[in-house]
Amino acid sequence: MNINIQFLKGVNAMRKRKPLLLIVSAVLLLTTVLAACSNSNTNNSQESPSPSSASATPGNTGGDTKPVSDTWVFGSEPLEFSLYFHYGWVDYKGMDDYPATKWLKENKQLNITPIQANGSHSEKMTTMISGNMLPDVIWGNRFDADIDRLYEAGQLVAFDEYLEKYPNLLKWAGKEKLDLLRSPDGKLYKFPNWYTNSSTNTAGYAINKKIYRELGSPKLETLDDLYAYLVKVKEKYGDQVIPFETDRAEDGQGVAILYTAFKEGALYDSLGKQLLAVPNGDKLTSVFTDPTFRESQKFVNKLYREKLMTQDAFTQTDDMVLEKLMTGRVAVYASANVTDKANKAHLELSKTNPEDGYFVTWPFHKAGLDKNKIHPGGNDRLGWNVAVITKAAKDPEKIFAFLDWYTSPEGMNLQFFGPEGKNWKGFDENGYPIFTEQADPAEIAQIQTDNLDIMLVGNAAYIDPAKISFEKTLPEEKKNWQAKYQSEVTWPSGVDITEYKNLTPPADSELGTTQQHVENLFLQVFAETTQAKSEADIDKILDQAEKDAQSYGYNKLLEWRTEQWQEKRKILGLE
Amino acid sequence: MSEAATRKTIAGPSPQSRPRKKSALHRLWKQMDVQLMVWPGILLIFVFSYIPMYGVLTAFMDYNIFTAHRIFENPWVGFKHFEAFFDAPNFWQIMRNTVVISLLKFVIGFPAPIILALMLNEVRHMVFKRVVQTITYLPHFMSWVIVGGLVMSLLSADNGSVNILLKGVGAIDEPINFLSIKDYFWTILISTNVWKEIGFSSIVYLAAIAGVDQHMYEAADIDGASKFKQIYLITLPSIMPVIIIFMVLAMGNLLNAGFEDILIIAENPLLRPVADVIDVYVYRIGLQNQKYSFAVAVGLFKAVISVGLLTMANYLARRAGSSLW
Question: Where do the record's region annotations for Disordered lie (chain B) (predicted)?
Answer without folding.
Answer: 1-21
